[in-house]
Design brief:
The structure is a single chain. It is built from three helices and eight strands. The chain is of the alpha+beta class. It has a five-stranded antiparallel sheet, sandwiched between helices.
Length: about 170
């Protein structure tokens, strides 16, 4: 496992669409391991292959200690509406309120090519949607009417005093 650099806004590779994966061998396993290790090191709750410069339909999401490795994922069911703060490891220092589906179900393959299904609400649903957007070359800022809606977030260690409620709620997804 290697911590790899996360591509940030402005790098055209961030807009790459993830190509379908047909080979489930060692290179895929190493990519999944690198994604998980890099995500945890950042830290975040999700990371997609295009954020590491890999144009593959692969991402990881970890919520409540449960790591989901998703290969060729697609949303098969979505319902409800939820507006909450969202951030991204590829757009450090900012968050914004984004409306997403409240509940989603995703079908994918695991690292061995077996079909899996992940369903979630709240943070898991938001993270799944965020990562699947990355696989389509889409960023959460694409949902904003204006970049003026971005809320700057100063890292906790660089400021005095307690975090605001918005800053405490903001979790970088990917």
């Amino acid at each position: 496992m290697t911590v790899r650099p996360i591509i940030t806004l402005g790098d055209p590779r961030l807009r790459l669409k993830g190509e379908r994966v047909d080979s489930f061998g060692k290179p895929l396993h190493e990519l999944l391991d690198d994604l998980a290790h890099t995500m945890r090191d950042a830290p975040g709750v999700g990371l997609a292959a295009p954020q590491l410069g890999e144009a593959l339909a692969v991402c990881v999401v970890e919520v409540e200690g449960q790591l989901h490795e998703l290969v060729n994922p697609r949303i098969v069911r979505a319902s409800g509406e939820d507006r909450d703060l969202e951030g991204c490891l590829s757009i450090p220092g900012f968050v914004a309120y984004i409306v997403r589906n409240e509940r989603v179900a995703v079908e994918a393959q695991n690292r061995f090519g077996r079909r899996i299904r992940v369903a979630g609400t709240e943070l898991l649903a938001r993270a799944l949607q965020h990562e699947l957007d990355h696989l389509q070359g889409k960023l959460y800022i694409d949902y904003l009417d204006s970049l003026d809606e971005l809320i700057p977030v100063v890292p906790h260690v660089e400021r005095e005093g307690a975090a605001t409620e918005d800053e405490e709620l903001a979790v970088p997804l990917a």
